[in-house]
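Hi all, posting the design record for the shared folder.

TITLE: backbone redesign
STEP: 1 of 1
STRUCTURE INPUT:
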């Protein structure tokens, strides 16, 4: 395995920002994206004209092109632009690509953004999961992504012995964490009884196993560590990054070639991710992980090596009471805060390392791992506090 650190430790996320999350924004996606980017730049204290790159991602063309966003921001001279239509695997991967572009000299400051009217507009959970495998899925009634993910969850449970009580642990953790998060869409803590009273959507997934789709936008500013140190906030250093797939398939909703449903992409990228950072899973302070479904969160926890395969539910039941374990999704994650396709859990990792997470802040957070996606393809980042500005908290 090539562990050439290249740009790792040399590039940072200088700031992150989100719009409010709502069931009906009453605004265009472009307006939401513009607000998130302007707020991100203001937080960093960087003039918009200093931005020379934009990376944006979408799913089923539910967002706006990066060049349109550049126009709305009044940017003139861009040297880097990327639009990526790969949904949940994109957030960490887009930051990874922005970091590479900056390290290669293609740009100096790149905004990475996700914006969508995901509840009042096009909803991923109801859109037919299109792709070249549709002719195999549709005749048997597999037309929406929650159905496809439910099949994966059921197979995972069969192979590992996990139960619905383990899924409940993920939903309960999300609700408890979100109860102190003013941004969260679902803020009422739930009990195990509440969970089992929740109706099925696609077995084994109940309503509380599924993310809540929202309208909103989130953006982060990526630049060199040297430049980030001259801005207003303590940087979140990109200590490592990775993208990995295992067994390419026909499309994101086809698992015909997958051979081990007890683990997803995180298992296959973890050695590179931890090796580049020079850290072990047991040294991380916060894990802000993609969790569009409870089973996805459990597999991401296990795949990253925070616990053994099949032990994710028990890990979640223990972690809130054991200070030696990393805090999982302090914001409530996608399950409770809202579904911005993983950009919000990435932003939470940034704020945690910067010491700016407000009521969800984990004390003495020096490192955070975040990941993007919940199936065979995905990406991840490890962020660390900048030692030169360690302990500095922005106003």
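Okay, here is what came back for every position:
SEQUENCE:
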């Amino acid at each position: 395995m090539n562990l050439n650190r290249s740009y790792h430790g040399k590039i940072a996320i200088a700031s992150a920002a989100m719009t409010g999350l709502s069931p009906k924004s009453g605004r265009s996606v472009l307006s939401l994206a513009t607000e998130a980017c302007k707020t991100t730049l203001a937080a960093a204290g960087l003039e918009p004209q200093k931005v020379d790159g934009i990376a944006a991602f979408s799913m089923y063309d539910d967002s706006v092109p990066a060049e349109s966003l550049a126009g709305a921001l009044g940017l003139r001279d861009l040297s880097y632009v990327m639009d990526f239509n790969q949904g949940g695997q994109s957030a960490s991967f887009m930051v990874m690509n922005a970091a590479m572009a900056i390290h290669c000299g293609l740009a100096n400051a790149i905004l990475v953004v996700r914006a969508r009217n995901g509840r009042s507009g096009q909803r991923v959970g109801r859109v037919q999961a299109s792709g070249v495998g549709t002719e195999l899925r549709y005749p048997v009634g597999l037309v929406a992504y929650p159905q496809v993910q439910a099949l994966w969850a059921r197979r995972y449970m069969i192979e590992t012995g996990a139960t619905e009580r383990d899924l409940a642990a993920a939903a309960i953790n999300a609700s408890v964490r979100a109860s102190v998060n003013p941004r969260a869409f679902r803020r009422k803590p739930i009990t195990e009884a509440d969970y089992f009273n929740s109706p099925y959507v696609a077995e084994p997934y109940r309503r509380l196993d599924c993310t809540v789709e929202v309208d909103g936008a989130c953006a982060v500013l990526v630049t060199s560590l040297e430049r980030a140190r001259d801005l207003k906030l303590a940087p979140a250093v990109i200590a490592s990054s990775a993208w990995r797939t295992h067994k390419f398939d026909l499309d994101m909703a086809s698992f015909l070639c997958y051979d081990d449903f007890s683990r997803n992409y995180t298992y296959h990228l973890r050695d590179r991710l931890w090796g580049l950072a020079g850290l072990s899973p047991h040294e991380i302070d916060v894990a802000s992980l993609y969790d569009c479904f409870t089973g996805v969160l459990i597999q991401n926890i296990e795949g990253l090596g925070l616990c053994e395969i099949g032990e994710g539910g028990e890990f979640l039941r223990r972690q809130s009471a054991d200070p030696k374990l990393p805090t999982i999704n302090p914001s409530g994650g996608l399950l409770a805060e809202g579904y911005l396709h993983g950009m919000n859990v990435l932003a939470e990792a940034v704020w945690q390392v910067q010491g700016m997470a407000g009521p969800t802040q984990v004390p003495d957070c020096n490192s955070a791992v975040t990941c993007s996606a919940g199936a065979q393809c995905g990406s991840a980042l490890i962020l660390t506090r900048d030692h030169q500005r360690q302990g500095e908290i922005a106003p």
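COMMENT: The CA atoms of residues 160 and 310 lie 5 Å apart.
Let me know if anyone wants the other runs.
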